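User: quick one, fold this
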Amino acid sequence: VDAFARLAPRHPDAVLAIAGDGPLEAEAREAERAHGLGGRIVWLGFRRPVDVMPAFDVFALPSRYEGLPYVLLEAVAAGLPIVATPVGGTETVIDREGNGIITAATPEDFAAGLGRLLGDRALRDRMAAAAREKAGQFTIPHMVDRTLGVYAEACERHRRRRRGALTGR
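Assistant:
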């Protein structure tokens, strides 16, 4: 909310949609009031990402702590350019300047990242295409192939070691 408040004056058509709920919601709603953002933030509550992401132009994840956030996988599957903080697993899903922007978790830096995407349609389109391409790395067949590849490599190393032990190498 603080990051959005910083960029809202420069992007009068921008609307922040917040999906989910939790212990910080009351604080976030108070920040909305304090910044005078009434009508610029839509509080969606708990929703399935697949139901709301098609309406987004950009996906933002301003977390200060996460494991690999599954919602990032949902965002690339939806073909969304992403602005996120460098929490656990973010760089597994986001290729810096490819399908998204990874920025510090300060309102200033996060607003700057969002502002870059909101102000540059060509950049958003390029990153959206890269996000759709990146999503292919997280399909079940692709992940099964990668897992089988790891096992095949381990078996081959084991065979080479055994062969070397049998021949005295």
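User: anything notable?
Assistant: The longest helix spans residues 140-167.
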